[in-house]
Design a protein that fits this description.
Layout (H helix, E strand, L loop, with lengths): L9 E5 L2 E11 L5 E9 L6 H4 L11 E14 L4 E5 L3 E4 L3 E16 H16 L1
Antiparallel strand pairs: 1-2, 2-3, 3-7, 4-5, 4-6, 4-7
């Protein structure tokens, strides 16, 4: 499977953030279908208001990914923070929020149904 990032469907485009998601990128056992995602994020973006209303007011979908450019900090439900930077592989378990410290581009792989629901929740938030 190969897809150019420009061919990945834009699911959300708001000031400071473009979220691209390609569903049915593969399968991962009990996790089911996997989507591949490409995020372009501006410094200062914070998911906290976008995730309000989700369980724990946090993203409840795990992600595996790679930071192409920039710096991001996640905060879990217990307040523990972790920062990832350009060149880092990462795993974000369910129950996190993300703050973009420096303009960033990341690639992620996620359980597609779970993450599609989170993306839809964000779309609903920004559309009012």
């Amino acid at each position: 499977m190969r897809i150019n990032r420009q061919d990945v469907d834009v699911r959300m485009a708001i000031p400071g953030a473009t979220v691209r998601q390609h569903r049915d990128f593969g399968t991962a056992g009990d996790l089911g279908g996997i989507s591949c995602e490409y995020f372009t994020l501006g410094a200062g973006v914070d998911t906290t208001p976008l995730f309000e209303g989700l369980d724990g007011d946090a993203c409840q979908c795990p992600h595996w990914g790679y930071v192409l450019v920039g710096t991001l900090t996640t905060t879990d439900g217990a307040g523990v923070q972790e920062t990832v930077r350009e060149g880092d592989l990462f795993y974000w378990p369910a129950g996190h929020n993300v703050r973009v410290d420096e303009d960033a581009e990341i690639v992620m792989f996620s359980p597609q149904d779970e993450h599609s629901a989170v993306i839809q929740h964000m779309l609903d938030k920004v559309s009012g």
